[in-house]
Specification:
Layout: H1 9-24, H2 29-38, H3 45-63, H4 67-87, H5 91-105, H6 123-138, H7 140-158
Organism: Methanocorpusculum petauri
Protein name: Terminase small subunit
């Protein structure tokens, strides 16, 4: 008869917890068997392998957390830390907590990004510039007319609108 059957539920749970702790800390099967032997567990390798399988299943389940639940727990923890900081009138810590909460919940405004674009490098601009230059060389009167129109536009933009 397998000795694990004679274990009390408390002993069984203790063994499961020990194997689980060893498992999550990276112990090999051989190290777990050695641990059981050194602690005088009267169990077969098959029983210890069953504990190892349970530890793997428990670790796998722990890895499948619910994002909303974990987010809620994190927010509640921050709320508690904030409450303690305010009780102690530690405004610096309270401000740091609020900043962390804003980051956690994605409430911060996006950072400004400088966009640099040199228009002279744009292919479309180069083509347009070439067409305009060719046209103005062929039509000198058009050039003078264009310059006059641009000056008019500039003076209109500088004049304030009527109230």
């Amino acid at each position: 008869m397998d000795p694990s059957i004679r274990l009390s539920p408390a002993e069984r749970e203790e063994h499961e917890n020990d194997i689980y702790t060893l498992y999550i800390n990276g112990a090999t099967r051989r190290q777990m068997l050695k641990y059981a032997y050194e602690n005088q567990w009267d169990l077969s390798e098959t029983s210890i392998d069953a504990y190892i399988r349970k530890a793997k299943a428990k670790a796998k389940t722990a890895a499948k957390f619910k994002e909303e639940v974990e987010l809620g727990k994190a927010i509640l923890r921050y709320d508690e830390l904030y409450r303690r900081a305010m009780t102690e009138k530690d405004l610096r810590v309270a401000r740091l907590i609020v900043g962390d909460m804003v980051t956690l919940m994605g409430l911060a405004a996006p950072q400004k990004q400088e966009i640099q674009h040199t228009i002279s490098q744009d292919t479309e601009y180069k083509e347009l510039r070439q067409i305009i230059d060719t046209y103005l060389k062929e039509n000198p009167a058009a050039k003078a007319d264009l310059v006059a129109r641009l000056k008019e536009t500039e003076s209109e933009e500088e004049t304030p609108a009527d109230p």
